[in-house]
Amino acid sequence: MEISAKWEYPGVSKEQKNLNHLMVKMQSPPDPSQKQRKPIALCMVIDKSWSMKGEKMDAVFNASSIFINWLTRYDFLGIVGYAEDVQIIQNMDFVKDKRQIIERLKDIRIGTSTNLSAGWLQGIRMLEEMKETNCIKRLILLTDGIATMGIQEDEKLVDIARSYYQKGIVTTTIGFGSDFNEGSLKSVAEAGNGNFHFIDNPEKITEVFYKEFQNVGSLYAQAGELRIQIPEGFRFLELLTGKSQPSVADGEVRFNIGDLMSDEERKVVSVFEIDGEVLSRNPQARNLPIEFKYHNVVDNISTEMKNITSFVEVSDARPDADTDVQLEVLLAQAGKAMIESSIMAQTDIDAASELLKNIKERIRNKMDLNPTLLEILFKRVDVMMKRLMEDSNMARKALLVSGSNLFTEHFKDDLMISTPIHAGIYDFETAGDLDLYNMPEVKSAIMNKIKKSYGYVVMDMKKTNFIDSSAIGGLIQISSWLKRRGGMLAVANLSNTVMKIFEMTQLNRYIYVASSVAQAKEKLNDIQKEA
Question: Residue 365 in contact with residue 326, Cβ under 8 Å?
């Protein structure tokens, strides 16, 4: 784990109070050498009320089946359905017979009302009562409506999510369609340290499950906490990024960072008021001690800690701004504007549109910070403004998700940021079947090339006749590494058996499959030309 920090303005004026932004960056290692991750204990809690009948439930069934096929035999799975009643579809157990588990999904009985809390609490209980303690506990709560039975108050639902996160259970929420309460689901996900997803059509549900698996399957650190000591002359004002508000006490500010995936970059941007006069009198106060504590879940390593010190210069005039920090500040402001406009649009669409118009203008004026990223972000905000006038209900949900995602690393994938990579294509030929034991070597070899600025990889699988679910997770992770850097993974020469696995798990929707290495290279070369 690497940690670094820098100020928007490396120095402050010695004769006045200065507002300054501090950016702290945490970078987790890719860790391709890990031999076996902690098992995942996953509970899917599925709304089976009457409104889910038909196309929605079919999409949930298909996506859940793919998700099950991504899990390994070392993972645990439980499935709960809820309407006015609660139906246990799969007790929490090892993922042994995947076909049988998928068949049980067909037994979901559609109901009428929506007792969300009953289904959710049943899933939590199944995770809490597990005898296996050395695992990553996750719950996915999916609904297309508002709770009409059981606990319905947002405050109580948030309290449940927060209290069980403190016991190690993370809750991710998925809103499906146009009738759910987006504010409530977002608050629950934030309190449960999970993710909030919005699905506006059935085709997107597999993509959402793919992102969730990518996150859980590559977990590196849990319970991350960032601490910044505040010496004399500094005053903490506001956190611009993150899911939860920090706590300030005893001359220290603490930020809940939550979980970090392997090869993830997390940035925390906060606002400080700095008294230049105090710092000029007391040079020792110019140093901010920063500590990052987390639990490393790889190979069962326990709590680790990283410490750095951030220094502030004092001068007669303020120096030039750091453009990296300025970019993060702008992204944070855009995210907050989207979230605020989503809330505002419930009562005043014109005011919400005006807020988006203002952030568009701010993005336009700062376009030189990162033209590729900000041009796409500008267009996204523009589209949101138009959607507000056409369908404010759906636009509010999309704004809430887009705004929240700007605080995470995942928006980079969504915005397709191009990063400096060279045009070379790395040819990698698998030596045989891919499974839990040899996949780490494959990941390590490709990561070594990525570190040398390779962004495009062709994997020749002509010697591979079988891949297990651990290899599926590994391929997803490799694909994610490359996409984050603006590159791409292609696979070639798949056997009939492996091709069936790709189709069954729909990996072929996320990884380009070619009939030959030559065809794969032609595709990658075309993509590079378009970029």
Answer: no
- The SS3 assignment for 517 reads helix
The predicted model scores a pTM of 0.78
Mean pLDDT estimate for the chain: 87
Q: What is the dihedral of CA 373, 374, 376, 379, to 10 degrees?
A: 170
Q: Which two tokens stand for residue 73?
A: 């035999």
What pairs with residue 270 in β-bridges? 22, 239
Using N-to-C axis directions, what is the helix angle for 323-344 and 392-405, rounded to 10°? Answer: 150
The residue-averaged pLDDT of 230-240 equals 92
Burial of 332-367, coded b for 16+ CB within 10 Å and e otherwise, reads bbbbbbbbbbbebbeeebeebbebbeebbeebeebe
How many residues are given for the chain? 531
The average pLDDT across 142-170 equals 92
Q: Is the pLDDT of residue 29 over 70?
A: yes
Give the integer Cα–Cα distance in Å for 448 and 457: 12
Closest CA to 387 of 335, 341, 347: 341
Contact 376, 415 (CB under 8 A): yes
- Does the domain at residues 422-530 carry the CATH identifier 3.30.750.24? yes
- The pLDDT of residue 468 is 83
**The CATH classification of domain 2-33+220-318, taken from the options 2.40.128.270, 2.60.40.1510, 3.90.1300.10, 1.10.760.10:** 2.60.40.1510
Find out whether 184 and 155 touch, Cβ atoms under 8 Å. no
What is the CA 16 to chain-centroid distance, rounded?
40
Given pLDDT bands bounded at 50, 70 and 90, which one contains residue 31? low
Compute, in degrees rounded to 10, the torsion defined by CA atoms 362, 367, 371, 376: 20
For residue 40, what are the β-bridge partners?
A: 136
- Sign of torsion, CA 45 50 51 57? positive
Integer Cα distance of 430 and 19 in angstroms: 54
Per-residue pLDDT at 315: 83
| Single-letter amino acid code for the residue at 196 | F
User: Could you tell me which of 77, 110, 106, 73 has the C-alpha nearest to residue 91?
Assistant: 77
Q: 417 falls in which pLDDT band (50, 70, 90)? A: very low
Class of domain 40-216: alpha beta
Beta bridge partners of 4: 25
Q: Under a CB-based contact definition with an 8 Å cutoff, are residues 45 and 10 in contact? A: no
DSSP string, 197-245: EEESSGGGHHHHHHHHHHHHHTEEEEEEEEEEE--TTEEEEEE-SSSS-
Residue 505 has pLDDT above 50, yes or no: yes
